[in-house]
Design goal:
By secondary structure, the chain is mostly helical. 50% of the residues lie in helices and 6% in strands. It contains 31 helices and ten strands. The strands form five sheets. A two-stranded antiparallel sheet has the order 1-2. A two-stranded antiparallel sheet has the order 3-4. Helix 1 crosses helix 2 and helix 19 packs across helix 20. The longest helix has 30 residues. It catalyses: S-ubiquitinyl-[E2 ubiquitin-conjugating enzyme]-L-cysteine + [acceptor protein]-L-lysine = [E2 ubiquitin-conjugating enzyme]-L-cysteine + N(6)-ubiquitinyl-[acceptor protein]-L-lysine. InterPro entries: AZUL, AZUL_sf, E3A/B/C-like, HECT_dom, Hect_E3_ubiquitin_ligase. Pfam families: AZUL (PF16558), HECT (PF00632).
Length: 715
């Protein structure tokens, strides 16, 4: 791993030294260059190749200034233009950055002459130069540099500026959700830029110049980001990525081979705060633009995967292009969430045990990294203050981010090791779980569970050697068919109190008085019998809705909480032991298990009749007080069918529901039905579930609808 990292560093250093060498021997092409270590500067001492090589090494060590390249245009026989020779339109040599007005002027001159070489030259020069691109297409023109625009009259300028739309960077331009001030929102005039691209991309020679310029620009940008902290010095460095990504032709074949892979590598080197700014900016761009960006990165990933052959020796995880494009796709993924309907409130409180200071046996054995506790948090997610589970409806459906070609070639056992052990040096696709299908992710979860089972088995063997006892490597359950709930409950309750880590062992079920080795089939039957018993309506733990064929917690159940903990443990064990269960819960149960509270929208699935009634209250145009006569006191039936009254607010029976407070009424009603009325039952259920899954990457890898697929397959 270390050698891989140092090999990449050596390759980057070599490229940087080569840039210094070229600068010392050939120069940057700028006749007004003032860098004394550049051959284009009049003060530079000429050096032979050996001396230049030694000097390049010295400049690399002290991180000396590197010039930008000033290319020129060379006409080809096919009518296209390349970067390379003397400029053909001297009158535009004083253009040091671009605005919409500048491009329009050059374009009209070229159209008059019937020759686009001047435009091609300027586009090639500006788009291959980081500094020039940063200053281009600003909302407010930079005052320091004189430009062609000085020919405009003041009136023209004012009218131009007023017509250019100001583009806001995010939902909260002043600061990020975690309270970090947003130093400055992007300064690019997006609307003007889009109009420019519309004009430019219809000209073939310009398209060719844009491709070549991007090929030249991106390696330099990548080096600058990696070694010179350019973004920290100048946050406007982000403009380069904003401008390039507005090119609607990026997905076309001429970009896929070299230009786009290099661009993705450069973009993936942006610091976290810059990626978060990009994500927030793109979230405001509207669906067509976000979808185009998503498809651009997806196409590059698919194209690269299909163009290569992968195996155990040549993993897709080591393909720089696929990895970089996946990291870029993550920025678009979060933009799609931010731009959609999001609820960052209504979170369940976590009752996670405080960390113990005592060393675990895993830590003593040096295995703590493989079995480290708790769910991971994605750094970009943390920076943006939003999680996929907070998203009610993204701009782009989550399924569209899954890349089938990656899922076909990924070696999940290797990827799992990178995810758990080598996260610092190796890329794991599980750090970008949105790109993986449920089947692929469930493979990763399977490895996690099996390794944990194997680990518990080893620890049991170690303990038994020390204590001189017979090892018990499995979670053994011996049950009687006619007392299955009592036997399972007593045994699992004892285990959960005395040694909860035993729940992480492989399940081994034995029915009393029956021969049979449990190779999965007996466990499957055990789960089925337990569920039939627990969901039996005569027991009264759950209620059943005949309309949607789903179960819900009985708020007036007489059963103790241990029964609910048992069903939670059973669900956890099913995931842990790779069993599909015949359970029928509404989606809100899985959302609550993953940390969200139930809200009004969840009623559509769990209590459809009530949802419809509440919707009518919200949409009613007449007088609610006179026509419906509702108050903040509600009535529901208990286990024996008796009506029970509940005040949603203090003295609720005296507060009528009006147009002004109906939103609050609906919110409190849904909160009572889905959260408050079943709080003790659900808490016990979740506690049992977490006993088995608390150390699993389940919460990090899967969304609630995917957890449902894991537990009970497709409805």
């Amino acid at each position: 791993q270390v050698s891989e990292s140092s090999r990449m560093n050596r390759a980057t250093a070599k490229r940087l030294i080569e840039r210094y060498f070229r600068q010392l021997t050939e120069g940057c092409g700028n006749s007004n260059c003032t860098n004394e270590f550049c051959a284009s500067c009049s003060n530079c001492q000429p050096l032979d190749n050996n001396a230049a090589a030694a000097k390049a090494l010295d400049l690399f060590k002290v991180n000396a200034k590197l010039c930008d390249y000033y290319p020129s245009v060379e006409s080809r026989s096919d009518g296209n233009f390349l970067l390379g020779s003397k400029m053909s339109a001297e009158e535009f040599s004083d253009v040091h950055y671009l605005t919409e007005h500048t491009v329009c002027r050059i374009l009209s001159c070229c159209e008059e002459e019937g020759n686009y070489s001047a435009l091609v030259h300027v586009i090639g020069r500006i788009f291959s130069n980081a500094d020039a691109l940063i200053k281009s297409f600003r909302k407010e023109e930079p005052s320091a540099t004189k430009n062609l625009d000085s020919l405009q009259s003041k009136e023209e300028k004012q009218s131009d500026q007023s017509s250019e739309k100001v583009f806001s960077s995010a939902s909260s331009p002043d600061e990020t959700p975690n309270g970090v001030p947003n130093s400055c929102e992007p300064t690019v005039d997006i609307d003007a830029l889009r109009r420019v691209y519309d004009k430019l991309l219809s000209i073939d020679q310009v398209e060719s110049a844009l491709v070549n310029a991007l090929i030249y620009l991106t390696p330099n940008v990548e080096l600058d980001l990696e070694y010179l902290d350019v973004y920290e010095t100048n946050p406007d460095y982000l403009n380069i990525f904003i401008i390039v990504m507005e090119n609607s032709n990026l997905h076309s074949p001429e970009y896929l081979e070299v230009a786009l892979p290099q661009f993705c590598k450069a973009m993936s080197k942006l610091p976290l705060i810059a990626l978060a700014r990009l994500s927030k900016l793109w979230s405001t761009c509207g669906l067509p633009h976000i979808r185009r960006m998503m498809e651009t990165f997806q196409q590059l990933i698919t194209f690269t995967v299909l163009s290569n052959e992968y195996g155990m020796e040549n993993l897709v995880n080591d393909d720089e292009t696929v990895v970089a494009a996946t990291k870029c796709l993550k920025v678009v993924f979060y933009a799609s969430i931010l731009g959609g309907e999001v609820d960052i409130e209504h979170n369940e409180e976590d009752d996670e045990d405080s960390e113990s200071d005592e060393l675990t046996l895993h830590e003593l054995l040096g295995e703590d990294r493989l079995y480290k506790k708790g769910p991971r948090i994605d750094p970009l997610e943390k920076e943006l203050g939003v999680r996929p589970i907070d998203c009610i409806k993204p701009l782009i459906p989550f399924e569209d981010f899954i890349n089938e070609s990656v899922n076909d070639v990924i070696e999940m056992d290797k990827d799992f090791t990178f995810f758990k052990v080598n996260a610092e040096t190796k890329f794991s696709f599980q750090s970008c779980p949105f790109i993986l299908s449920v089947i692929t992710k469930s493979q990763g979860l399977y490895y996690d569970n099996r390794i944990r089972m194997y680990s518990e088995r080893r620890l049991t063997a170690l303990y038994s050697m020390v204590q001189g006892q017979q090892p018990n490597p499995y979670l053994r359950l011996k049950v009687r068919r006619d007392h299955i709930i009592d036997d399972a409950l007593v045994r699992l309750e004892m285990i959960s109190m005395e040694n909860p880590s035993d729940l992480k062992k492989q399940l081994y079920v034995e029915f009393e008085g029956e021969q049979g080795v449990d190779e999965g089939g007996v466990s499957k039957e055990f789960f089925q019998l337990v569920l039939e018993e627990i969901f039996n309506l005569d027991i009264g733990m759950f209620t059943y809705d005949n309309d949607n064929k789903l179960f819900w917690f009985n708020s007036s159940s007489l059963e103790n909480e241990a029964q609910y903990t048992l069903i939670g443990i059973v669900l956890g064990l099913a995931i842990y032991n790779n069993c599909i269960l015949d359970v029928h819960f509404p989606m809100v149960v899985y959302r609550k298990l993953m940390g969200k509270k139930g809200t009004f929208l969840d009623l559509s699935d769990s209590h459809p009749v009530l949802y419809q009634s509440m919707k009518e209250v919200l949409e009613y145009t007449g007088s609610l007080e006179e026509d419906m006569m509702l108050t903040f006191q509600i009535s529901h039936t208990d286990l024996f069918g008796n009506p029970m009254l509940y005040d949603l607010k203090e003295k609720g029976d005296q507060i009528p529901v009006t147009k002004e407070n109906r939103q609050e009424f609906v919110h409190l009603y849904a909160d009572y039905i889905l959260n408050n009325s079943v709080e003790s039952q659900f808490k016990a259920f979740k506690k049992g579930f977490l006993m088995v899954t608390n150390e699993s990457p389940l919460k990090y890898l899967f969304r609630p609808e995917e957890v449902e697929l894991l537990i009970c397959g497709s409805r």
